Amino acid sequence: MYNVDTTKGLNQRVEAGTYEVFINNMSEEALPSGKEFISVDILIRNDVQQQFKDRQFKERLWMKKDGTGYVLALLGSIKKALGNEGEFNYPSFAEMREDFLRKPFQVKIDWVTTKNESTGKEYTNLNFLEVNPSALPVLNHQYTIKQQAPLDSKPIDISDSDLPF
């Protein structure tokens, strides 16, 4: 027997609303043009009764135009939702990343359509309206086969003798 569920279609966009989420991964990346950003992968928790479980948002935190650092307002809002106040300085990206991974919080999102005046193209983007403390602060998310738990991952040791060439 085969079960096809239209609520799990590929092109079904997460509806505007409030969701219990956590940051699954963060990485420093760059566009082919060289513009740098931090990619933040946010997962909708599957240990909470809510729609769109296991769906992922990808948010980009862009490098400031003057190159002096990233725009980290979203991370500041998340840090506050996690119960922390004040300014936090991290000596490395890896330490900052570890401080945010797998900590639950709540987001209220909406979709906003903007028009690029120079090209005339319209773009629909995710907009974070609110970041709040989680109503369920204990995270029991169960990873699916497609998801990866970055905290549990270990490097693969491959030697030259393992390669066929």
General description of the model:
There is one protein chain. The protein is mainly β and 165 residues long. It is built from two helices and five strands, in the order βββααββ. The chain has a five-stranded antiparallel beta sheet with strand order 3-2-1-4-5. The protein is globular and about 55 Å long.
Name its key features.
five-stranded antiparallel β-sheet, 10% helix, 165 residues, mainly beta, globular
User: How many distinct beta strands?
Assistant: 5
Largest sheet: 5 strands, antiparallel
As a whole number of angstroms, the C-alpha radius of gyration is 18 Å
Tell me the fraction of residues in β-strands, as a range.
25-35%
The tally of structural domains comes to 1
What is the H-and-E element order?
Answer: EEEHHEE
What does the average pLDDT come to? 87
Instruction: Estimate percent helicity.
Output: 10-25%
Shape: globular
Report the span from N to C terminus.
Answer: 44 Å
Query: What ranges have pLDDT less than 50 throughout 5 or more consecutive residues?
Result: none
Structural class: mainly beta
Q: Which strand order does the major sheet show?
A: 3-2-1-4-5
Brief description of this entry?
By secondary structure, the protein is mainly β.
Helix and strand arrangement:
Elements: E1 17-30, E2 36-44, E3 56-62, H1 73-81, H2 93-100, E4 104-115, E5 122-133
Antiparallel strand pairs: 1-2, 1-4, 2-3, 4-5
